[in-house]
Specification:
mainly alpha, PXMP4 protein, Pmp4, flat, 3 domains, 8 helices
């Protein structure tokens, strides 16, 4: 019986590998693997981030913290998997309908995926969109220089960009804090507000805040 079971598994693996080599299934299989990669990558990215942010800034029991980490990881992993699946599926469909791949296909497929998957305004989606927005601004700036739409800077503009970004974000934090994302508010509160408060050496060097009633 054991030998027969092993033979069946090996036969199944051979059949699966044969299907994976078929060119006619390549587009559909790429969509499925995109779903798999989106789920795995989303979990890899979100789990350590959620772990650090939860234990640094969130209160509650260990069970509540672990539940929050698991929920954030699941949401990020699911959304990225759904988006990649939608995007690659629409790309394959458009290419099949028009007989070729053109640049607009990518923009259109991603717009639809973004609307369907990331359209809900929640903390996870908000973080992902802001992450992408910063990369887009840098990418479009470089593209504009490459295409000649704006002249090549004579000096590296990065120091000026860094100064303006830090100046703006600290001004917002000090005077319009509610406009910033909650996780950024938490980080900046820890860095700039909590460092103004201490009572003795324990909460000056060892702890951020005292937990007793001294």
């Amino acid at each position: 019986m054991a030998g027969g079971g092993g033979d069946a598994v090996r036969a199944l693996l051979r059949a699966a590998n044969a299907i994976l080599q078929q060119r006619r299934y390549r587009a559909a299989l790429a969509v499925l693997k995109g779903f798999r990669n989106g789920a795995v990558y989303g979990a890899k990215i979100r789990a350590p981030h959620a772990l650090v942010m939860t234990f640094l800034f969130k209160s509650g029991s260990l069970r509540e913290k672990l539940k929050s980490i698991a929920q954030a990881t699941y949401t990020h992993s699911r959304n990225l998997a759904y988006f990649v699946f939608t995007y690659k599926g629409l790309m394959a469909l458009q290419s099949w309908l028009q007989g070729k791949k053109i640049p607009f296909h990518s923009f259109f497929a991603a717009c639809i995926g973004g609307w369907l998957v990331f359209g809900e305004n929640n903390p996870i989606n908000s973080q992902i969109i802001m992450y992408l927005l910063s990369r887009i601004l840098f990418g479009l700036s470089r593209l504009a220089v490459e295409k000649g739409y704006i002249p090549q800077p004579k000096q590296d503009p990065f120091p000026l960009v860094a100064a303006l970004i830090w100046g703006t974000v600290l001004w917002l934090f000090e005077y319009h804090r509610q406009t910033l994302q909650p996780s950024l508010q938490s980080s900046m509160t820890y860095l700039y507000d909590d460092s103004n408060v201490w009572h003795d050496i324990s909460d000056f060097l060892i702890y951020n805040k005292r937990t007793d009633n001294k």
